[in-house]
């Protein structure tokens, strides 16, 4: 058998793109490729080289349903480009039996507003949709979440972003939801607002159902021991939402000790800092120390940080940039409040624009209109 050399000239490489995969070069592998699968994917304009690089084993499987999978996607409204993108991103899709994909389409369609919405999810999360091995668990979990009267968009987002939570038995999710409900009500939450509160938690972090129920109890138990009232705890849970399930008591203990020492504050002052800037609870000790030192090096005082703790949410680079930007317009943050530099980029731009327009106002006429 003739051996084809792998060093091709530029013109040959261009010609290679025009040839079918059977005529192109392939690297030697342990398993021989299924030529029928390769040709079928090529006919759908799928980049075979990309599939070989990422999931080459798929091309060696004896049984594949390329035409059937493409047909199902086409029935949902997918064009050639979309089909090619899906199969390039998740080539394992062609290994799913057509009847399983149809059942999955009907199941996911029950929580989508239409075929277009379902196709959009498949295009973004093909691996989630084509995970058909836990169909019964998926159905049970969907029915359970629907019984809670959760929004369809929330359920479909959970299925797409965190498919593991739907692949496991429904009892696991019921336990987590039960713990969340107890937590909300124990903290003084209103039963009538429970559904809305729960939807906010799930939309912020789809992986919340995968967190053990004990993590919620441990985190809240620690904060309760530190003297936070029921009302304050509810405020923290509402602010942190799903992030509170990721907090570890020991890590929070170290962070609170550092903040209290760095800001020289009492227990009550420390609680006020945490209520105003809940993010300090989940930042690492190294991150907080670096940002606090950056503020000190920039000329800010401990009292300023204590009064505007939200400044700790900003990286040192952002803080320095905003301080220099304001200094160019004559505003010295060392003699004022740090509130002017906190917030999102949009918030800062608004503050910056106010200072800029204030400089442009004519000094001799205090009621002169602002210049554009």
From TrEMBL:
SMART domains: Mterf. GO terms for biological process: termination of mitochondrial transcription. Keywords: Transit peptide. Pfam families: mTERF. InterPro entries: MTERF, MTERF_sf. One of its GO terms (molecular function) is nucleic acid binding. Belongs to the mTERF family. The keyword Transit peptide applies. The lineage of its organism: Eukaryota, Metazoa, Chordata, Craniata, Vertebrata. GO terms for cellular component: mitochondrial matrix. This is Transcription termination factor 2, mitochondrial-like.
């Amino acid at each position: 058998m003739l051996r084809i050399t792998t060093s091709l000239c530029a013109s040959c490489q261009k010609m290679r793109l025009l040839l079918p995969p059977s005529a192109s070069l392939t690297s030697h592998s342990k398993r021989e490729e299924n030529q029928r699968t390769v040709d079928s994917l090529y006919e759908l304009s799928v980049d075979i080289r990309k599939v070989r690089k990422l999931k080459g084993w798929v091309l060696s499987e004896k049984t594949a349903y390329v035409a059937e999978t493409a047909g199902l996607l086409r029935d949902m409204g997918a064009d050639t480009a979309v089909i090619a993108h899906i199969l390039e991103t998740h080539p394992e899709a062609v290994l799913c039996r057509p009847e399983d994909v149809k059942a999955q389409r009907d199941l996911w369609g029950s929580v989508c507003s239409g075929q277009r919405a379902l196709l959009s999810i498949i295009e973004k999360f093909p691996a989630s949709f084509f995970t058909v091995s836990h169909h019964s668990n998926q159905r049970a979990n969907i029915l359970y979440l629907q019984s809670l009267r959760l929004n369809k968009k929330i359920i479909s987002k959970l299925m797409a972003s965190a498919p593991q939570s739907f692949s496991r038995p429904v009892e696991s999710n019921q336990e987590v939801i039960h713990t969340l409900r107890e937590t909300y009500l124990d903290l003084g939450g209103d039963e009538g607002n429970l559904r809305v509160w729960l939807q906010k938690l799930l939309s912020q972090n789809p992986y919340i159902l995968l967190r053990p129920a004990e993590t919620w109890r441990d985190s809240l138990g620690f904060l309760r021991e530190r003297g936070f009232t029921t009302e304050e705890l509810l405020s923290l849970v509402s602010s942190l939402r799903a992030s509170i399930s990721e907090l570890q008591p020991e890590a929070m203990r170290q962070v609170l000790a550092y903040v209290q020492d760095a800001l020289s504050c009492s227990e009550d002052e420390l609680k006020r800092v945490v209520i105003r800037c809940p993010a300090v609870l989940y930042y690492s000790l190294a991150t907080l120390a670096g940002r606090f030192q950056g503020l000190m090096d920039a000329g800010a005082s401990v009292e300023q940080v204590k009064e505007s703790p939200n400044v700790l949410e900003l990286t040192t680079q952002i803080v320095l940039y905003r301080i220099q930007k304001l200094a160019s317009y004559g505003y010295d943050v060392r003699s004022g409040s740090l509130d002017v530099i906190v917030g999102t980029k949009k918030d800062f731009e608004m503050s910056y624009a106010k200072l800029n327009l204030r400089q442009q106002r004519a000094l001799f006429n205090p009621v002169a209109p602002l210049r554009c």
